[in-house]
Write a structure and sequence with these properties.
Shape: elongated
Number of helices: 8
Radius of gyration: 23 Å
Distance between the termini: 57 Å
Order of helices and strands: HHHHHHHH
CATH architecture of the largest domain: Orthogonal Bundle
Largest sheet: none
Oligomer: single chain
Number of strands: 0
Length: 171
């Protein structure tokens, strides 16, 4: 039974390997990640206890791939939005200026920061302005913007992540 399952998975890999990777690249937009996910698809196929219960192995193959792509997207989203601005480590990072390669003068840093801030969505930018320029509390910001304090934290976290990425890039 294990031999027939292995042969089936090998056949699926031979027949659908290229199209499966293309399918995953369209979803995750990164070739190396798509290749890893394609491998994981086959590993999961090998773990199916009884392949005889799978009516359409090709459809099952793409269903597993689709689910893996969704898991990857969810994990990526969660890892980007996971900064907690109340965390002491994050607060310490806010106080420190990032290290820039080369000697960027203050005027260029300010210009880049303005450009980064202009790229933020309106409510996200408003939360940054109200927090860092007006000194309002999360509750006050939430009331002014008509959102929850959780969303205020989320907006500030997104802004911090975005600005750090933009400020750290060489352009």
């Amino acid at each position: 039974m294990a031999d027939s399952k292995t042969r089936l998975v090998e056949r699926l890999f031979a027949e659908h390997g290229g199209s499966l990777k293309a399918f995953l690249v369209r979803r995750v937009r990164r070739q190396p990640i798509a290749a890893e996910l394609a491998q994981e698809v086959y590993v999961r196929m090998l773990r199916v206890p009884d392949m005889g219960t799978v009516r359409n192995p090709e459809a099952y193959l793409y269903t597993v791939a689709s689910n893996l792509a969704k898991e990857y997207a969810r994990d990526e989203h969660n890892s980007e939005a996971a900064l907690d601005v109340d965390d002491p480590w994050v607060q310490a990072q806010l106080v420190e200026l990032p290290v820039f390669s080369g000697q960027m003068d203050a005027e260029r840093r300010v210009k880049r920061l303005r450009e980064a801030l202009e790229q933020l969505p309106p409510k996200c930018l408003a939360a940054v302005v109200l927090q860092y320029w007006k000194g309002l509390s999360y509750q006050e910001i939430a009331e002014r913007l008509g959102i929850s304090t959780h969303m205020v934290k989320k907006y500030l976290s997104q802004a911090l992540t975005h600005c750090r990425r933009r400020m750290g890039r060489q352009e």
